[in-house]
Amino acid sequence: MGHIINTVASVAALTALFVPEVAAQSCPGVNSRFQPRMGSGYRFSLLATGLRQPRHITIDSAGNLLVAEGGSQSVRRLVLQDQGNIVCVQSNTQLSGTNTNHGIALSADGRTLFTSNLASVNAYSYDPATGQVGSGRQIVNGMSNTGTHPTRAIATSKWSPDTILVARGSQNNIDTTTTQTSSGRSMIKTFSISAGTQSTINYNTGGEVLGWGLRNIVGLTEDPAYGGIWSVENQMDDLRLNGRDIHNNNPAERLSYHGVLNATTNRYKGLNYGYPSCVPAWDPQNVGINGLVVGSLFKPDSVPNANDCANRMTGRLHFHAHTAPLDVKFTANGTAAYIAFHGSWNRNPADGYRVMRVDFRNGDPVADVSSTTAQIPVMENSNVGGCPNNCFRPVGLAFDAKGRLYVSSDTTGEIYVIYGA
Predict the structure, then answer these.
(1) What is the architecture of the domain spanning 2-419?
(2) What is the pTM for the complete model shown?
(3) Where is the Pyrroloquinoline quinone-dependent pyranose dehydrogenase beta-propeller domain (predicted)?
(4) Which residue, 315, 399, 386, 390, is CA-closest to 355?
C-alpha cells in the first residue's frame, strides 16, 4: 500500500500550492464559465470565447495571436490590445485559405505561416502587420493514416532557421509496425523548409529521423536560450502486465530531449524511445518488477517482443499516467518550461486538466529523471471531478513579448491568459 500513500501525498502537496483566484478580470463581453485555481504568484484573465476547438497557438512578430481551429480547419487571427492590467481582443478574423486541424508555426523571420493536418504540412506567405496570407503550398505530404492520432505537431527553429520539425503518431494504441522506421509513424522528423517549398517532400521517404519509438508526440518546442528540442508524449492506454490491469497509474507520460539541431554532433539524433515494445513506469510498485524506478522502461502485454528495453532512450522527466500533455513552451530565458495537460479519459478518477511549470537550469530540468514532484502548479480546474465534460481542457501554449502565457481550451472554445509566468 506504500505507493498509494505516496500518490495521495503527492496530490495533497500539489493542491496545497494552488490558491483560489477570486478577483480575476475578464475582457468586455467575455464571460468565464469556470473559476480556475491558480498557483502561487499567478493570476489569469479570459481573453476569448466562442472559438471552434482552438488547438495549438502562436504569437506573430506584431504581437497578434494566431489560433489553429480544429473545428473550422483554419487559422484565426486575434489582434490584441492592453486594457489596464489585462490583455483583450481588438479584432478577430479568420485567415481565409488556411488549412489545419492542430499544428501551427511561424518561420524564424515571421513571414511564413506553417500549418498541419492529417495529410500534410502547408506553407503560406504571411504579413504580420495586415494578416494577409498567400496561397498555400504543401511542403510535406504522405502523412494520412487510418485509426487514431490525426494531429501532426510542428515546430520551427530559431537556431536552425531552414528546419521544420513534424511529429506523426501511431495509428492505434499498439501500432506493431512502428518497430521499424519505415512505418513513418511514432516519430519526429526534420525537413528542410527551402527544399519543401521547391518540391513537396514525402514524410515516409524524405527528411531525417530525429527520434522514434515515440507513441504520440502532440507538442514540440525549442528552448530559446539553449537551443534544445523537447517533446511531450501521450503514452499507451489500457496497459496490462502478465494479465493484470495496471493502466490506472501506468505508463508515465514523458518529456523527452532531442538535442540541438545545429550542433556539430547531436548524440540524441535518431534515438529509439521504446514504443511499442517498451513503456515508462509512473508507479513502479504497481508494475511489480524489481529494480524499476519512475521512467524505467518495461515490456507490457500484447506488444512486439523486446529484449533490449534497458538500451532504449527514455524521457528526461515523467508525469502522471494519462494526463495527456499536448504542448510545451519555454520562457525566453529558458529557466522554465510550461506544459498543458489536456486530461485523462483512460483513468478513474480523472487527472490532468491543468497547466504546470517545470524549472530548468542551464538547458536541463532541475529535477531528477525519476522525480514525481517536478511539476509546479500554475492553473488547474477547481473541480476536476467535473472533467472532462464540465471543465476547461488546456491544449496550446504561447508566450508574448511581455512574458504573458496564452492557453487554449479546445472543448470550451476559450483562450486564457496567465500573468506572472
Answers:
(1) 6 Propeller (2.120)
(2) 0.94
(3) 37-419
(4) 399
